[in-house]
Amino acid sequence: MLKTSLLPSALAAGACAAIALALAVSPGWWIVAPPLVLALLTAGYDILQRRHSVLRNYPVLGHLRFAMEAVRPEIQQYFVERNFDGRPFDRDTRSIVYERAKGTDAEEPFGTERDLYRPGSEYLAPSMAPRPVRTDPPRVRVGGPDCAQPYDMALLNISAMSFGSLSANAILALNTGAALGGFAHDTGEGGLSEYHLRPGGDLVWEIGTGYFGCRTHNGGFDERQFARKAAHPHVKAVSLKISQGAKPGIGGVLPGAKVNAEIARVRGVPRGRTVISPPYHRVYSTPRELVRFLARMRQLAAGKPVGFKLCVGSRREFLAVCRAMLEENTTPDFIVVDGAEGGTGAAPLEFADVVGLPLGEGLVTVHNALSGSGLRDRIRIGASGKVATGSDLVSRLVQGADYTNAARAMMFAVGCIQAQRCHTNTCPVGVATQDARRARALDVADKALRVRRYQQATLRSALQIMAAMGVDGPAGLRPHMLLQRVDPHTVRSYAELHEWLAPGQLLAAAPETWAADWEAADPDRFTL
After folding, report:
1. What is the pTM for the complete model shown?
2. What confidence tens digit (pLDDT) does each residue in 87-126 have?
3. Domains contained in the chain, number
4. Strand 482-487 vs strand 122-124: parallel, antiparallel, or unpaired?
5. Domain residue limits at 12
């Protein structure tokens, strides 16, 4: 495609040439001149308008995408509606996000395209006695007994996406939307940049294995840098990333070509050199050391909430962390459970397909482990992984979460069209690129409003669904309210499909199905 700067010039030159030839050579050239002039005017409008990033980067030619949308789902679904790792992504879900972000969310007639009898399908149970829809979205107090500065978390927030993976304008739009809507924005592990801080939105600062933004010269954790940055008033909580849903157990790579001066400064790494995040943390090697380090982070952060994020693998390993919490008599303030179905443009396909538990099973595991250990009331659970709609949000709350985070849906809200070019630095809409020309196409003010509208509309949808289920809010949700089809003829509720531990049950008398893992869980050793 022609660059934005070249196409208008080419059209202008062509229009002038056609007019000159029509006047000097042959009137037949008047047939060519009007279309060229019209195309030139269209290009000018496309570059100046602020609603569509595709048109700003690809004037005139970008209209082909909207022509494809007019004949969806056949063409659009085949070409552009794919997940980052190549697997299909639900067309209806993406449409819901786009419509809510644009403020045009409305009911669509003529039933559903969903296969209601597919094994694995889940359903929320409506009540014969629905409740009035509440107009005040509840918030979740995050902060255990050791937390001096608790934070009231929204039910839906922006999940971890780093500056470097996303453009500066994308980060600005996300954080401005969070500030407008009063919800939290996870920074991702790429450091704390001015684009996170400038708009004033509430931040959860994520620290990964590379310790970007609080990193020593040899790649270790710098307590002094961490304490100074964690003290910023916009930083409301700190999260230690242990593992990520789409690629648990491996680190990330940022090619040296993308490490410009700005990203190098934010991450605390040399400019122009490839940055490799190790798969493991230096600050701990046992469950007990992890728990102690989290307590140290909270102390350095002046008592702000501290937690960790993981994609669950071994139940026994997580129980070892619970044992360490009990023996050390300290707990994190929150745990974010990431699902293996989470998307990223930097995950090996085999990891995305087969490593780690799906979000629902991870939530059930963490909720029950904490409950059985007698720790659930001290720790809030966040859910991250393919949360996009109100029904997603409600389902995750039933499965054990207290609040949710969305990444991919928030990218849709700022204009992502799933072009699957995140790794090439040529994102056509300026979302996942460090190319300044391409990123310029993303208008921050417009996309920030879309982020806020999407979050608010999705929360309204979740509250409507809860009211239809006969409850006033999250506190009334129970496992029997979420149903799953296990085969073409059988439906079971989550109360039947999973074992739900009573508070402190593991301490009193572990049930047979948990006893072996509980007995083998060692607070001084990670083991399967």
Report:
1. 0.85
2. 445 656 777 887 888 887 666 555 555 667 888 889 999 9
3. 2
4. antiparallel
5. 1-48
